[in-house]
Input
Amino acid sequence: MPGRHRPRSLAAALGVALLIAAAPGCGSEESAPSRAPAEAPPEAAPAGSPYWVDPESDAARQVAAWEAQGRAGEAQLLRRISERPMALWVPGDDPGPAIRRAAKGAGAAGRVLVLTAYNIPHRDCGQHSAGGAAGATAYRDWIGAFADAVGDARAVVVLEPDAVPHIVDGCTQAAHHEERLRLLSEAVTRLKGNRNTKVYLDAGNPAWIPDPMKLVEPLFKAGLGRADGFSLNVSNFQPDAAGREYGARISEAAHGKHFVIDTSRNGLGPLPGGGHESWCNPPGRALGAAPTDRTGDPLVDAYLWIKRPGESDGPCRGGPAAGRWWPEYALGLASRASQ
Output
């Protein structure tokens, strides 16, 4: 279905940590580029970005592996990912350890932690990223543990990518709508009980729900009034300008609510021509604007890398399962980046 995203599962990524040294060139559409590496890597704490860079990300591990193999040029390119802040997609079993590790690192660095909560029951309508909590009680327990682990850390939480748009497009069964909206609203309340946590409810992207007014009522039922705003383009490829225009229309109908935009892979926009699963590991894409809270737009609180570049959207176009690290694809994104 056009417009959907396919985010990752942190647990899946941890399971492939030993595979990151795999060489590229396995017949995928993202073969190793011939372009020369950048003269200098981006700073570990990029200018204009208050967000934390995880030194243990899959991209950072891949850089170390390639350097050890003497593949210095490829490692240099991949630093365009490894040395940028990305959202941590929190495990669906016990969220505490991963969040506490990240919060400790962010606190020591004086940085803001970016987290994605992606564990709503009946997640992804049973498709590539199917899963989620077993039921309402399990989800309440999970989001409570999530919020407890964040505590007083400075954090931005992107809440449940796809959850509201999948209600609007009818992918989520009608029998689950009321419960989902209630759980989202409760999650906003629970997370906002933390004094330094900002919460953004996901609102899809311009190519998914063409009429943004269809999102406003369900977003408010999901707790938008108490949230800091909404998120757009998570794991998708829509240009920044399209996101700003789309977000401004929602904001106008939502009492001026602000929003954040995922710029992780939209440097060259969506796959030309669209087509079936055009959102799923499209070839020829590039990293977008680096994460920052200096957007130049009073409604856009931040450009964020919510989708972690290099993690597969699903088993399409030669990719691994959704959320698994794919070094060839990561290298392609980095090689085409303009910054």
Q: What stands out?
A: The chain has a mean pLDDT of 87. DSSP finds ten helices and seven strands in the chain. The longest strand covers residues 197-202.
